[in-house]
Write a structure and sequence with these properties.
Strand content of chain A: under 5%
Distance between the termini of chain A: 9 Å
Distance between the termini of chain B: 26 Å
CATH class of the largest domain in chain A: Mainly Alpha
Radius of gyration of chain A: 24 Å
Number of helices of chain A: 12
Helix content of chain B: 55-70%
CATH superfamily of the largest domain in chain A: MetI-like
Family (chain A): Belongs to the binding-protein-dependent transport system permease family.
Largest sheet of chain A: 2 strands, antiparallel
Protein name (chain A): ABC transporter permease
Pfam families (chain A): BPD_transp_1, BPD_transp_1_N
Membrane topology (chain A): Multi-pass membrane protein
CATH architecture of one domain in chain B: Orthogonal Bundle
InterPro entries (chain A): BPD_transp_1_N, MetI-like, MetI-like_sf
CATH topology of one domain in chain B: MetI-like fold
Structural class of chain A: mainly alpha
CATH class of one domain in chain B: Mainly Alpha
Oligomer: heterodimer
Shape of chain A: globular
Order of helices and strands of chain A: HHHHEEEEHHHHHHHH
Number of strands of chain B: 0
């Protein structure tokens, strides 16, 4: 078991290094391909004089070879002093993602501000879709062809075909603008200041995001349950005279829902990317809107930071799933 | 495309069962309903029969055909429409460069009248501010969707099948390397990364063709591990089958075994994957355009139309419903057809 965990950990670090390396390379090398200096995209304008360009290039370290630059980025993660491009050196403590010259702020500060929004959105939606998807999927899978099954699967099929950038505005139109059931606060409300407002401000984003995933989970769960309930060992359990509840809960669902664990971990880990559209639609200032803004400004340090954080979340989630899986199903670790 | 009928299916199915010697020829074992006794039916004939009975899947197929026709014949269809409404002198390009008069309110730049100013001259009205004809925009948006989703799917298919077949066939370190690459790719925050790539590529060039290419690459490249894994798993088991041994004993080389003997057996899963990947890529393209990093205006895109409509939703929800419905119906059709196809091809499906 320990060997399994250790090998997974090593793999995880490798993946992170590859992801950060590729991201870094794209951001540092592409401006060079375009025969312009990355300095331009760091400070957001052309430097006033060639001398200034030269000195900034040196100060940012762009005159060094790419591997050295990457190493300095990687090593700097544990804290270093970065230049803010004008005069003073800024202390950048762990975890250091560099400095955003567009916003005059440490990237880690910006990410720290945005993270609670994205986490609130992700956790709430995940709870909703897990409950909804598993319930509908299990009920449908246990009684294929029933009314619940047909209604659930039709709804699920419609839901996977509806993009959030369509359902979101329509939901806003109906529940906020027309019916007025929810306040039009246009954005995120801090949970520590106003828990009720926080809940209301996130209700529609949760539902819209969860709807998509719930539909996918319902379909997956249904087919797993359907398949499992046709297995020989279920028939054996039935032949033994076990009551239906025991068969379904102890024998059926345990096997049928194991694959869902994998998918759930990956989906949760990938949510930082997936929430971009939801955050944009509902004007929530999370990591998604932060990255979109960074893209519009070509604010490369911020974009690099968010991408690395997102990859980190994904890799951690994969790792947890793998280890959990190793416990649930001992065959995996062999 | 998959509606072309059972003959194509059966030709492929000749490799099923005891087939695959490579010497068998493509004799077409079409079921003959009038033949006395028991006629053998290939897997594909059975699948086609099942699919034909699945009304929803067929409806999806019809919508897909209409969607493809609209995308391919966008030019003549737009010309026909413009002629009917008496704007024959306009073309798609001029309709975009010169917003038509008397349709937009001069002050607010909003269309005059409800339903986005729909009238006999503009059947679905015009967009606010730019004053573009929504019907032609939707028509050409279908072309954008189809071209990008189609090319992206093709890219992921080619990469995925190549990687999957090679990894599954050679096993060992080749499989190790390819599988590791696919695992790493699946750990990429895809959407974020796509956004970054598109925006960085705009530093180099802002041509709309380059943007097309980057979007296709981003959508296709990051999704190839999905089909790659499926194919790899299938090949791992197929390579142990007798027909592979038979082919080898007849002196067939690795390349022939991989692509002539094994690959045809993968047509089923690949077809299902294709029909389910296309709607995903349609949504992907729309999503990128919605976020402002999709195709460059004036190339119409449904996602971009939705994005533009967002600011006017309280004025007239019609703008958002039209492109939204277009996406929904198209994606739903592909999903219905893909589901039907999967059920039809699944030997374990209910009898």
């Amino acid at each position: 078991m320990i060997r399994f965990v250790v090998s997974r950990l090593i793999g995880m670090v490798l993946v992170l290094i590859v992801v950060s390396m590729v991201t870094f390379l794209i951001f540092q090398a592409v401006p060079l391909l375009a025969k312009s200096s990355p300095v331009y995209y760091y400070i957001g304008k052309a430097p006033a004089t060639p001398e200034l360009l030269q000195s900034l290039t040196h100060r940012f370290g762009f005159d060094q070879p790419l591997p050295a630059q990457y190493w300095s980025y990687l090593a700097g993660f544990f804290g270093k002093s970065v230049t803010d491009g004008t005069s003073a050196a800024v202390q950048c403590p762990f975890p250091c993602f560099g400095y955003s010259f567009r916003r005059n702020e440490l990237v880690s500060t910006l990410i720290g501000q945005a993270l609670p929004v994205t986490i609130s959105l992700a956790v709430g939606a995940a709870i909703l879709w897990l409950i909804g998807g598993l319930t509908v999927g299990t009920l449908s899978g246990l009684k294929p062809g029933s009314l619940v099954d047909r209604a659930g699967m039709t709804g699920a099929l419609a839901a996977v075909s509806l993009p959030i950038f369509f359902t979101g505005p329509v939901a806003l139109l109906i529940f906020v603008y027309t019916l007025g059931w929810l306040p039009d606060n246009n954005g995120y409300v801090d949970i520590t200041q106003n828990p009720v407002g926080w809940f209301l401000s996130l209700l529609l984003p949760w539902i819209c995001l969860a709807l998509l995933f719930a539909a996918l989970y319902a379909r997956l769960t249904r087919s797993n349950v359907l398949e499992t309930m046709n297995e020989d060992y279920i028939r054996t359990a039935r032949a033994k005279g076990l009551d239906r509840r025991t068969i379904v809960v102890k024998h059926g669902l345990r096997a049928a829902l194991t694959p869902v664990v994998t998918i759930f971990g990956i989906d949760i880990g990938g949510l930082i990317g997936t929430t971009i559209i939801t955050e944009t639609v509902f004007n929530l200032r999370g990591l998604g809107t932060l990255s979109i803004q960074a893209i519009r400004d070509l604010d490369l340090p911020v974009l690099l930071g968010v991408t690395v954080v997102a990859a980190f979340a994904l890799v951690i989630a994969n790792f947890i799933v793998d280890v959990l899986y190793g416990f649930i199903d001992p065959r995996v670790s062999v | 495309m998959s509606l072309s009928g059972p003959t194509e299916f059966e030709a492929v199915a000749a490799d099923d069962g005891l087939a695959g010697s490579g010497l068998q020829g493509d004799g077409n074992p079409a079921p003959d309903a009038t033949a006395p006794g028991i006629a053998g039916r290939s897997l594909w004939a059975i699948a086609w029969r099942r699919l034909r009975r699945d009304k929803l899947a067929l409806a999806g197929g019809v919508v897909i055909v209409l969607f493809i026709l609209a995308a391919v014949f966008a030019d003549p269809l737009a010309a026909l429409y413009l002629n009917i409404v008496g704007r024959g002198s306009e073309t798609f390009a001029t309709a975009h460069n010169t917003p038509p008069r008397n349709v937009l309110d001069e002050l607010t730049l909003l269309p005059v009248g409800a339903f986005s100013g729909a009238s006999a001259k503009f059947w679905l009205g015009v967009t606010p501010q730019a004053g573009l004809d929504i019907l032609t925009n939707l028509l050409y948006g279908a072309r954008t969707s189809l071209v990008i989703a189609g090319l992206a799917t093709a890219l992921s298919l080619v990469l995925g099948v190549l990687a999957g077949v090679i990894a599954g066939f050679y096993r060992g370190w080749i499989d190790g390397v390819l599988s590791r690459i696919m695992d790493v790719l699946l750990s990429f925050p895809t959407l974020l990364f796509s956004l970054a790539l598109v925006s960085v590529s705009s530093i180099i060039t802002t041509s709309s063709f380059a943007r097309y290419a980057v979007i296709v690459f981003v959508l296709g490249f990051f999704s190839f591990p999905y089909i790659g894994r499926i194919v790899r798993g299938q090949v791992l088991s197929l390579r142990e089958k007798e027909f592979v041994e038979a082919a080898r004993s007849l002196g067939a080389g690795n390349a022939r075994i991989m692509f002539r003997e094994i690959a045809p057996n993968l047509v089923g899963p690949i077809l299902v994957y294709t029909t389910l990947a296309i709607p995903n890529n349609i949504l992907g393209e729309a999503g990128l355009s919605f976020l402002g990093v999709g195709v460059v205006p004036p190339t119409p895109s449904w996602g971009q139309m939705l994005s533009d409509a967002g600011g006017f939703i309280q004025v007239d929800p019609f703008y958002i419903f039209l492109p939204g419905l277009a996406i929904f119906i198209t994606v739903l059709a592909f999903n219905l057809f893909g589901d039907g196809l999967r059920d039809a091809l699944d030997p374990k499906a209910r009898r």
